[in-house]
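User: Hey, quick favor. My workstation is busy. Could you predict this chain's structure for me?
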Amino acid sequence: MDNVLNLEKIKLTTARKAILELLSNSKKPLSYEDVKEFLLMDKATFYRNIAIFEEEDIIDSFESNDKKRYFELKRDKHSHFICSDCYTIECIEENPKFSLKNYKIDNIILKGVCKDCNKDE
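Assistant: No problem, here it is.
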């Protein structure tokens, strides 16, 4: 993690280290609501640091059906599945075969009903 910050010339503060550790240890994207109980910082500090990480291209983010913004460290490109019933977000390691002529696609967000919600039907 320190190498990412050193390469990007960002000072490693306690707040930044805490955010990066949470994102690094997570297997799925996290919202502020997911991490606020683990951080000793206010919401403004969290989002100020997130903005720096986005500006330096260290993290990816997207908005979900629940109108929350989710964040994850930039790693291998992958897609996400968002359940429209329970709002669960899953990382999809297999990339769906999808292309548009003259476009470069970096990420695909699929929305639908997850396997847990679907089995209840």
